[in-house]
Amino acid sequence: MMGRGEAGIDSVEIKVHPRQANTQAGSSPNPSQFQSQSVFKNWVPWLVPLFVVANVAVFIAVMYVNDCPSNSGSCVARSLGRFSFQPLKENPLLGPSSSTLEKMGALDVNRVVHKHQSWRLISCIWLHAGVFHVLANMLSLLFIGIRLEQEFGFLRVGLVYVISGYGGSLLSALFIQTGISVGASGALFGLLGGMLSELITNWTIYANKFAALLTLLCIIAVNLAVGLLPHVDNFAHIGGFLSGFFLGFVFLIRPQFKWINQKTCPPGYIAPPAQSKHQTYQYVLWVISLIVLIIGFTLGLVALFRGVNVNNNCSWCHYLSCVPTSLWSCKLQQVYCQSMELGSQLKLTCLSNGKSNMYDLSNNDSSKLVAFNMPPPVTTGGVVGAVSWDVVQVEVDS
What we know:
Layout: E1 2-4, E2 10-15, E3 17-18, E4 34-37, H1 47-66, H2 68-71, H3 98-104, H4 109-114, H5 120-123, H6 131-152, H7 154-175, E5 180-181, H8 185-201, H9 209-226, H10 234-251, H11 257-263, E6 269-270, H12 280-305, E7 337-342, E8 345-350, E9 356-360, H13 367-373, E10 378-379, E11 386-390, E12 393-397
Parallel strand pairs: 5-10
Antiparallel strand pairs: 1-2, 2-4, 3-6, 7-8, 8-9, 11-12
Helix pairs in contact: 1-6, 6-7, 6-8, 7-8, 7-10, 7-12, 8-9, 8-10, 10-12
């Protein structure tokens, strides 16, 4: 039987039989015939904690650049100086302004497509809209990522995290053509998707298979349902989850049980023969997943840089990100600016954050200036709760 210990160390209880020459007829079996050995390396996690530190450091840097006292009329926690937060009516998550996030690398489809800033597809997953946003995502990353890194190592988990974040940004850019998007939620959903595919491809090593599968599916369903609320980028969640799901079949694969028995069998004992390291279905899933990932990312990038708005070809897809109810609307909130003409100049003041600018009216065209001064709406995301594997089941830490 093979299981995962309480401390997260993978071990296999190997039952083997001694060779005929080493056993006398009628002799009782020796306890040493039953061996318990560690067959999977237990990695020391360092990359996931480094990701957490990097995200927090980036958030501090964004707040430094934001400098609320110099750019807004009123700030929250003004005693923090330039690290103080934007007014709650502008950013209830306790964070910077949307214009600062846009300047620091938030996902903006117009800049990605028309200004060749494709790096925003990666930079946006390191940005967060506020203290509550970064805190929720980083706690989830610690609970989910550390256990995965202990089992599979920094390289495979790091690739799943970054590529899934990129996949989430790509799908978000194809559907959300206005406003900006920030957050590591696409990458976090990629880890959840990787956990699901890892459970499927390594199905034989779990005891309570269906309990683990049902619990994980419930967690994923709850988190995707939260993404139906307004101002939550559920397309990043879906894109990250699908990317991580297929990446799990590629990177998070375990050898079959017979092969482990054969490789860890002590001298003088024989184990059931294993013709290959992995089972046939694992190879099939590996090939199919790799093909799907290559085709999906290629088609997505081609559609993005050709300026395709997928919503035009899918009239119902917008419901995947927000479902309107009597309690809220899915329409983007309008931003109003107050104008005051002073001679040949126009003074515009944004009512949400108090920012104001002066514009020259010599060209008698102020209509474009109003649109230019409006801060873009921000969509964010995050994972509710966290997941960790334990022996034969999934635990939820809230």
